[in-house]
Design goal:
CATH superfamily: STAS domain
Structural class: alpha/beta
Shape: globular
Number of domains: 1
Number of helices: 5
CATH architecture: 2-Layer Sandwich
Strand order of the largest sheet: 1-2-4-6-7
Radius of gyration: 13 Å
CATH class: Alpha Beta
Amino acid sequence: MPTQDSRLLIHRDGDIIQISFVDRNILEETSIQQIGDEIAQLIDESLNPRILINFTDVEHLSSAALGTLITINNRLRQKNGQLRLCTIDPQIHEVFKITKLDKLFQIHETVDEATSSFQ
């Protein structure tokens, strides 16, 4: 995958890996696959991964992107990791509510709230 540009911006804050997106619209299958692969690699490289995904400026998510988030969450749980989501656009947050994914994920309004929620 080195020939492809990353679809993610990654920042480490202590032992928390903060991830945000390059794209405003996360709709294309190839981009979603690449995002999933990049995050999976970050999870695999960590002992007890703590990942914060920041959705600032993301305007649209496809159902495939939601599926990738579920896969990421499952992979994290297998490694005793934790996942937090934050700054989700109200329209996207509504999709999380409709699909009941707001019960699966810990969603916070701000990066600071999400960061302080890690145990």
